[in-house]
Amino acid sequence: MRAIGLTRFGGPEVLEPLELPEPRAGAGQVRIRVHAAAVNPTDTMTRGGTRPQADPPPYVPGMDAAGVIDQIGPGAESRFELGEAVVALIAPQGAYGAYSERIVVPAESVVPVPAGVDFVRAATFLMNSMTARLALDAMGLSTGDTLAVTGAAGAFGGSVVQLAKADGLRVIADAKDGDRELVRELGADEVVERGDGVAARIRELIPGGVPGLADGALLNERAAEAVADGGTLATVRGWQGPAGRGIKVFPVSVRTAVGDTAGLARLVKQAEEGALSLRVAKVFPAEQAAEAHRLLEAGGVRGRLVLDFA
């Protein structure tokens, strides 16, 4: 079975085609013939060795897969049919990752592809939108509250903006000049210049500070400066503070939600309704995964890069 992975950690050049044993679906599992897999920042962390690995190499990255069910294990027959188009949220470990021609996944991590959506677009949204959902749920803001979002033009930040608007929140987001229109189209009510001093610019709009902030730009304590005393800050790379002034810091990890079938299904419905945009930046043949990683790490990608396994 064809996969794209690595046998040593390093730069994009360590990614290479691999031949792995074809997996078989066990109890409560389904096997997916992968057509498309998204490239996410977490994949570059796996490749670079910054994520602990319990298993020996090879390692196969990838958290977002879209494809067709081609094998159903005992206990999963009631939810799926052979040939059904699905998307899956995957917690990669060792040779288990989305950059594979076939992957066996717990049935609870699999939901139907949004209606009318092709595999490439379908592969772009589950990981980032579920992470955004976790951030919003952790902060627990109420309808009408104001949320600030840093890194709003990125995949996580953009998902936060859209889901926050669906929740009835007022959103202040950051953007560079070239991204202002995009961020407004995603639903931001106010847009401030990103970069150094963004917290002060948010404070100019909300002098007392915002009750919640989702930090997609990894500003950590610098983002906390925009948060009101006793407010909340959601972070995505494990930063836990302290932030001071009674601010509660919530590090969110999508790995805690890979089995949240109801939550995944809700995101699919929101994608069908247009509340979530499925943004594709560029599609690469799977064998060009190294080029996709180089492009992602160069920065400025708007939308997801996708590997084509079809």
TrEMBL record:
The lineage of its organism: Bacteria, Bacillati, Actinomycetota, Actinomycetes, Pseudonocardiales. Keywords: NADP, Oxidoreductase. Residues 10-307 form the Enoyl reductase (ER) domain. GO terms for molecular function: NADPH binding; oxidoreductase activity, acting on NAD(P)H. It comes from Amycolatopsis acidicola. This is NADP-dependent oxidoreductase. SMART domains: PKS_ER (SM00829). Pfam families: ADH_N, ADH_zinc_N_2.
